Structure formats: C-alpha cells, structure tokens
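[audit] Reproducing an earlier prediction to check determinism. Same input, same settings, fresh worker. If the tokens differ from the archived copy the diff job will pick it up downstream; this log only records the rerun itself.
[audit] input (174 residues):
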Amino acid sequence: RETNSIQTIADVREQSYDFGIIRFRTEYERYFMDYLTEKSLDTQVLWDFEAYAVMSCENSASAKKELDYSDFAFRSVEVMYGDDSVPYLHESRSADKAIQNCSRIYVFDRGSALDTLHSLKNSFMLSSPMPESELEKTGLVQRKCRFNGNKYRDLLVYSSGHTLSESEILLVNR
C-alpha cells in the first residue's frame, strides 16, 4: 500500500509486513538510520537520485531545460506529498522554505499528483526521474531543478534476519 516513510517503518516493524521502501532526503539519513536501528530493521540502498521538477508541457517554466526552485515563486502551485516527516524532528521539511508565495496542494498518491499536474497548467512537483513514456502519456515534462538538499535515497527496509525471497527480489529490482 502507498503510505509515508514513518508508517512504512511501523508497518514492517509492528504489523509483520515483509518489507517496505522508504524515501528521504540524504541530509536526514542519520535520523532515519538511527530510527531504523532503534526499530531493529535492516536496510538496503535501492537508489540515490536528484529530484526533477515535473509539470505540464504547457507550464511556462517547461521552456527552460534547467530550473531553480525559485523559478516557481509567485505564479505556481506546488503539488506535494504530505510526507515530509523526519524521525526525531518535529518541524515540516519542504525542499526550500524560501518560496513563501507559492501555493501548495498536498496529495497522498502518485495518480492524484499526476492528474493534478495535468489539470493545473501552472503546477509542478518535485519527483524522482520518470520514464519518458509515462510523461508522454500524461502530457508532462520533467526538468532538472536546482535547490539545496536535492539528494534523495530510496531504501529497502525489512525485519532483521528476514531473507528476501526470489519473488521479493524480482519485485524490488523491477
């Protein structure tokens, strides 16, 4: 099921899920790793990446090949997942608090995010790189986007001692 990183950790630890995948900004890695150790969970790095700005091909910012996060100030709506929590930290963590004049819409799942990006031509979302075929189907484009802390990690999380089955390995490597 699609959920946030903290809930995924709890699901694996307390509800006997075999494994989960979490995503976080690498600048918060020590908080996540301490939390995962405290919960007696093992991990495996799946992917490190920089986020891209995903938007409608009709968004005026799409004309540029590379953007700064500040390019979206005043005229854009940022589509965000509500999950920016970090273990042991209580304040919200968005990519760059410098943009105060940018409206935000919080969504829970990727499908809603893509629908919103397609419908609201002035919207954008920071996302892991997406396949061009998926972007073309939805009328979206992705652009490099510079901002502080633009380094993310996807981490496989599983109970200490759990050995991944062949089918689990195939699923994760898909």
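[audit] rerun output stored. Observation attached for the diff report: The helical segments are 5-14, 29-38, 110-119, 132-138, 166-172.
[audit] end
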